[in-house]
Structures are given as structure tokens and as C-alpha cells.
Amino acid sequence: MTARTAIALVFFLATTSVLAQDAPAQPAFRVALEVSLRDEDLKERVSQYLRNELRALGDVEVSTENPDYKLYVMLTEMRAGGGRIAYVLGISVTSFFPDGYFDTILRKDLANAKEVSSLLEAVPVYEHQFLSLAGPSEANLIETVTSSIAKLNAHVLEPKRANGD
Q: Which one, of 19, 59, 81, 64, lies nearest residue 153 by Cα?
């Protein structure tokens, strides 16, 4: 083996090893977000806070493609005397029937069983709802987003992780 061949082989093995180590792990959960808020600037900031908190969980990918869960987020400002006195943050969590779920329920000899099955699997299923009240500052709102995602993690995701789902 020539020196040039040996160097090329070492380089190839080192590169393959580095690439194998850098391959990101598949996320355990895919989550879609839908934020309802009239103020577009605040809506984008709240969406970013939510995405950051979900990603910080380590095994959650925020994506609209084949989500395991969809979070419907509503934020309302409570006002009195011309100023904001609080934020109300509501998050509804839905999931979807897993692929093939209805194949075992519907008889295979029905002419439209496949179509019915695929339509039913796309129906969202209500899982949880979190309602929080935050003080009037944006810092209070960020704390509330953080605690709401912690509740989602504790009440929805952790049980799924523990069951290996």
C-alpha cells in the first residue's frame, strides 16, 4: 500500500467516524404549533418562545409534517384602565390516531375500509388543555410559556416516554 493510499484510507475512516457521531438522533416527538393572536409582532415572539422551549426538551421537533401532537395556542391580553393587567395563555393539545389504528377495527371486506380508515386517522384527538395567567410584562409571559411547556412535558410527553411510545 502506498503512502498516498494509506493517507486516503485514514482520512476516509476518520471522516466516516465523525459523520456517524454527528448524525442527529431522531426526535421522539413531532409537534406542530398554531398560535392565535391579533398582534402579529407578539404572535411571532410567542411562537418563538414556544419553539425554543419545545426544542429545549431535547427530543421534540417543531414541524407541521406528520406531527404527533398539535398545540393550539391562544393568547389574550386582559386590559383595565387603558393598560394591560395580565396575559391569559391557553394551550390545547391534540394528537392523532396512529397509522393503521383502524385497520384492526374495520372489517377488511368493506369496499371503502381503506378510505374510511385513512380519514379517521387524520382526526385530531383532544389530549390536554393548559390555561395560565401571567402578569402584564413580557418577562411574565415568557415564564408562563416556560411553565406551560413544562406541564406539557410532565402530563403528556413524559408518560409516553415512560411507556416507550
A: 59
CA distance 131 to 145: 11
Give the residue extent of every domain in the chain: 27-163
From 125, 132, 145, select the one nearest 48 (Cα to Cα).
145
- The dihedral sign for the CA sequence 61, 65, 70, 76: positive
- Bridge partners of 116? none
pLDDT per residue as tens digits for the range 58-98: 999 999 988 999 999 999 999 999 899 999 999 999 987 66
Q: Which value, in Å, is the radius of gyration of the alpha carbons in the chain?
A: 23
Q: Where are the beta strands (DSSP E) in the chain?
A: 29-36, 60-62, 69-80, 83-96, 124-134
Please give the torsion angle defined by the CA atoms of residues 19, 28, 64 and 122, in that order, rounded to the nearest 10 degrees: 140
CATH number for the domain formed by residue range(s) 27-163: 3.40.50
pTM of structure: 0.72
Task: Provide the grid cell at 91.
Answer: 394551550
